[in-house]
Structure prediction request, 171 residues.
Amino acid sequence: MDKIIFHPEFVTATIYEWKALLKKEEFKQIIIDSLQFLVKENRIILYAYCLMDTHIHLIWQVKGEWLSSQVRRDFFKYTAQQFKKLLEQKYPQALHIFKSTQQDRIHQFWERHTLCIELYTPAVFEQKVDYIHHNPVKAGLCTYPEEYVYSSAKYYLNAVDEFNFLSHYNG
Prediction:
């Protein structure tokens, strides 16, 4: 049977109702830990990322026999469970702001519809990397993209991989 090959994928996911859950670093760390796991377990190649207070941007490529939908499902389900656990332990008074209006869940941490775009050409890929890296600058969080800790910009400029999970898109 032929191996399934996927193009890299640009993923944008937003915290429910644009709440600033990821403002605290410990919530960003949940995302970092999850991405490290996915890379270590050979489920994805991670090319670029940026973690903002209310949303995340990723460029990843699904590997092996995994389907993109499976990786996304597991990633968002696990991170939501970890967000809930951390809120219960350290910020129980804030848990109610993530109360869901949906019948299938009690709490909701991610908006239901994640933007996923397959990147078929190098030009589009590079445009998305540039967009991701300039997101914190545009938001006023830093002057230069490489100054923002929760982004892959420093990796592409200075070969510094803060969390040891990135692959350069040029090999």
Remarks:
- Helices lie at 25-40, 68-90, 122-138, 153-158.
- The mean pLDDT is 93.
- The chain is about 35% helix and 15% strand.
